[in-house]
Design brief:
Shape: globular
Structural class: alpha/beta
Strand order of the largest sheet: 3-2-1-4-5
Length: 395
């Protein structure tokens, strides 16, 4: 989307959304579970979490995260607020029907957690609370990887590990300082790669970010392919800074990883470090970076960009990229385009900067697209399934 009224693109949307602004000062999470827990830190940071709603009688008696858990009947009789449904995809429809049967309407009285975090709360945060909220952002510490996955979404298979340059620790510090100097709260902040466990100063990066900006982060995580075990220093720092290890599961393609995952999860358990081992990945999407070459005008590229809606933001020193894959693939696969496709955090000043930041995060920019859109399947990538983590050469 091209900027037409920079700093004011959402004025009308916000006015409609906040006609009854008090409802956003008293929010109930429907679902006292892991998805609800992920949202808890966000609402706590804004002081607007009123409690939980759940149909589980046991949870109603025990409470959750230090908050009361109400039955929906009890909520209807004694409480009033806005409801965010924090449940799995299969459980959202029956909960929505339960609310609708009680004459509550979607968006007016309740919304799903995904829509709340991605579409509604960023606007509410700026226009009602004068704060910048980002759902997910990341720092790519290194483009080096311990695997060589064909069709890697970051193009890391094309990186020569012996020659590639990681971010310096000073660049990591600068990235964090620039980002958190402009962002009031991020639901999840991620250290990624490449493979971040190859980054020699990972403990220093974790400690710096956690100590200085932990209160502005809901979930502080490291995304790893699980091939490298953390050393004692990293385990100690991750425990202290409440870091979550998100472990990609490629054991279906690379059988030897099953044993490595067992060793890794055991080690994390022993050292009190939280982790989530993902479901076994069988298929990826082919973004087509190695074969797509669009002969398209600006309007077509804007269409490709607008239908993509990638959630993968990256901060790299003062540069905030809408799509980490566009930046990394351009560098790693030798396209060397899109050098200006970022928002400069250090020049965001004045009364409108929070709205401009929010608009960029929604996909607004001067061009309305990224140069790498010419070489990407975008939203159509889902139409081209490929084997997950298929190796270019043996490991």
């Amino acid at each position: 989307m091209k900027w037409n009224n920079r700093g004011h693109e959402f004025d009308i949307v916000a006015e409609k959304l906040l006609q009854n602004q008090e409802k956003f000062r008293c929010i109930y999470i429907f679902g006292a579970g892991l998805i609800g827990a992920n949202l808890t830190a966000v609402l706590q940071a804004y002081g607007i979490l009123a409690g939980f709603i759940d149909n589980d009688i046991k949870k109603q008696h025990e409470g959750y995260k230090g908050y009361a858990v109400y039955s929906f009947e009890e909520y209807r009789k004694e409480h009033k607020g806005f409801i965010v449904i924090a449940a799995s995809d299969k459980n959202i429809p029956p909960i929505s029907k339960q609310l609708e049967d009680a004459d509550l309407s979607e968006e007016q009285d309740f919304v799903t957690h995904t829509k709340f975090c991605n579409e509604i709360f960023p606007i509410v945060s700026v226009y009602l609370f004068s704060k910048v909220y980002i759902d997910v952002a990341q720092i790519s510490l290194t483009e080096r990887c311990s695997l060589k996955c064909r069709k890697c979404a970051h193009g890391c298979f094309a990186v020569d590990n012996s020659r590639a340059k990681d971010l310096t620790i000073e660049q990591v510090y600068k990235s964090a300082d620039s980002f958190f100097g402009r962002v009031d709260f991020v639901r999840e902040f991620v250290l990624i790669g490449g493979e971040p466990m190859l980054y020699k100063q990972l403990p220093e990066a974790v400690q710096y970010i956690g100590e200085r900006y932990g209160k502005q982060i809901g979930v502080f995580s490291i995304t790893t392919n699980g091939t490298i075990l953390p050393d004692e220093k990293l385990l100690r720092v991750c425990n202290a800074q409440n870091v979550l290890f998100r472990i990609s599961n490629y054991s279906g393609t690379i059988a030897r990883l099953k044993n490595t995952y067992n060793m890794l999860t055991k080690l994390l358990d022993q050292n009190g470090v939280a982790y989530e081992l993902g479901m076994e990945e069988k298929e990826w999407m082919d973004y087509g970076f190695d074969c797509v070459d669009r002969i398209a005008d600006a309007d077509e590229l804007i269409r490709v960009f607008d239908t993509c809606k990638t959630p993968c933001r990256e901060v790299r020193e003062n540069r905030y990229y809408f799509c980490v894959m566009a930046r990394s693939v351009s560098d790693n696969m030798g396209f060397h385009i899109g050098k200006d496709d970022f928002l400069d955090l250090d020049v965001l000043t004045g009364e409108q900067y929070k709205k401009e930041f929010m608009e960029f995060n929604f996909g607004y920019s001067d061009k309305g697209y990224l140069d790498m859109c010419r070489h990407c399947n975008g939203a159509d990538s889902a139409k081209y399934p490929i084997p997950a983590a298929e190796q270019v050469d043996s490991h």
